[in-house]
Design goal:
The structure holds two protein chains of two kinds. Chain A is α+β, with helices and mostly antiparallel strands. Chain A has 20 helices and 17 strands. Chain A starts with 11 loop residues before the first helix and ends with a helix. Helices cover 37% and strands 18% of the residues of chain B. Chain B contains seven helices and seven strands. The termini of chain B are far apart. Classes of the chains: A alpha+beta, B alpha+beta. Chains A and B meet through α7, α10, α11 and α12 of A and α1, α3, β3, β4 and α4 of B.
Chain lengths: 581, 199
Amino acid sequence: MTTPAPAETLDLAARFPGAVSADTRPGYTGWIVTPEKLLEFAQFVRDELGYDYLVNLCAVDYLPENRMEVVYNVFKTTGGPGLTFKTWAPRTDPIEIPSVISIWPGADFQEREAWDLYGVKFIGHPDLRRILMWEGFEGHPMRKDWQEAFYDEDVKPFKRRWPDGKHVYAEKRAVYGDNINFKPGFDPEKWTPTDPEEALYKSLKKYKSETTDGIETDHIIVNMGPQHPSTHGVFRAVVVLDGETVVSLKPVMGYLHRNHEKIGERNTWLQNMPYTDRLDYFNSMTNNWGYALAVEKLMGIPVAERAEYIRVIMAELSRIQNHLILIGMLLNDLGAYFTPALYAFEERELILDVFEAVSGSRMMCNYFRFGGVVRDIDEDSLRKIKDLVFDRLPRKIEEFDRLLTENEIIVSRLKGVAPLTAEEAIAYSMAGPMLRASGVPYDIRRADPYGIYDRFDFDVAVRYNGDMYDRYLIRVDEMHQSIRILQQAVKSIPEGPIASQKPSYTTKVPPGESYGRVEGPKGELGFYLVSTGKPNPWRYHVRTPSFVNLTALEKMCIGTKIADFVAILGAVDIVLGELDR
Amino acid sequence: MMTGKGILKGLGVTLKRFIDTYLDDLRWWGKRYYTPEGIAHRSSKDAKGVFTIQYPEEKLPVPEEFRYKPFLLYDEGPNGEQNIRCTSCGICAKACPPQCIWIVRGTDPQTGRPVPQPAGFWIDADICMSCGFCAEYCPFDAIKMDHNYEVASYTRNLMDINDLLKPVSYYASIRPLNYAREEEARKAKEAAKAAKSQA
């Protein structure tokens, strides 16, 4: 394999004179493209340079400079470092940026999110509706000048808490207070509600009734969720059915939206750590890691050697329990009610016992700190982990395999259902097991290594059919690989300090930007951070696998039966905590 | 391949589990449930069959590092007085991610100068996310995370200083290793201080 010249040495400014310039702000990298040339540039980057994989797209509000920036992080599916480029427009409505959906279809939901939260109009986007907030919501909540209903202060720590912190309930302070904004000319007396769902139903493929053999037939719309048990939370899908076959489908999300990113920008750097636990609440360990990685990149600090091993151990244990639960719950979705799920829970309990002993909490671990981890792993826990990875887990994964893999009902329900080709998976920015099940051996642990994964001997699990059965098998494969990593890690874990920094509740982060990405169990978890040198991040964006992987949901579901939709959604492995943020 | 072989293989696994549960029951005759050894066995790598902890009749013991809602520590004086360790420095309130700690700094009524005592201390336990930062960054070991997780109530949980205060002996009982380590560090520090003042 020949390695092309890295993007840093390419002079893209010379290739696009007047339209592209290097981003020379201190701490920033990449290129700034004018909106007029954005599509041409993106086409060039994808087709000529080979950056075929759009991983992250987000907006940043530079209020003092009066500019709204859109950031693109693109990578090559053959591996290697990525390319960052930005485009910006003045911060006066309407803010218009061309949509890159024609080049990377995976930009779909991410552009809708930027429109929803920042009010960036993506020209050329076919379905630019709100995605996390509801249609009819006034304002764009991630803008720096937008304030929430119980607004206290711009950044934490709030002055109200100390030294004169007489407790007062937030709702007593702002009972329909003065920070509720109406749009100009809005009069509640004269307001007649419009159907907020109208745009949603209009976005579905048009249906028409027809008469066959004298019988009038019609497509019907079915709302699955938000309270449907198969949706793993409060997720809703609006499905157009022709008989039992899915004709069109639109996911509706945001029922668990709490504006995690806005909270993140109010928080100090360290305070975000426990909040990341609550994204994908099955894998707080990997969430912690993603965030710690992005901040460590910004700070330019090393990670203590022992802590690196502990991080790998925790992340891989987390991956195993996530995949166990996924398989168990997938079987629930297929109708094998709870036997596999509860078998999976047993192994998960043992892993969570370890998490609890080292971090203090089974699920909300809050275990990582910048430069290391919060506390050392004790002998007893290490012995427990050894018991698990050398004895129990291999045995139990094998048992799972025997229980399910060859079961004829499972095979016939899964094989050939909802296939996604490698090209489609890349185009839709699929990540993690979903991408690898489609025959793309892209694993960040190998493609863009972080931590100490380059020291371990393991294979990138890959399956080639891209159907449901492969999505099941890839999880089993990945658990075997995780066991391999764990066995090497627990054998070679060195003694030593567990943090490279002195513990402190304040963090000095130099100005700049960083994008930290880890291979979470569900796919790529990325954190895009902007620091202005203050104690709080200026921008805190989370690129979550659950959210981006759903871009291809409609593509996968069209033509399948409604009963399979439940399983397809289950195999994408969404968690509403990180989907809705 | 014979159709149905996969299903039979899977059923074999479930049947084995079913039998294992009873075998384990027999092997641990009468001790599988409601005994500390039984609970330890059921949460070990050798556990077979049913895992369930019969809560609330039996409870899974929590590890020392388990954290659930903070409390404030006081040293017991010789005459039973409560010497609150907190100096109302406000570090916990500043570190707290959901900002649920409210402190009124103590002042001397005569001079109006700050004194190292809190005049008011509240933790809004409904907002607390049990992250443990307050205990982690407290320089005086004055606030620690509790082990009591059964805190359901019919009302909102705003805890004032009287709800929060617990004796150091309680802390030593739930976190013996941490307590020993901190005491050692404190003694070493005092010894160093004494040596310095003598020199």
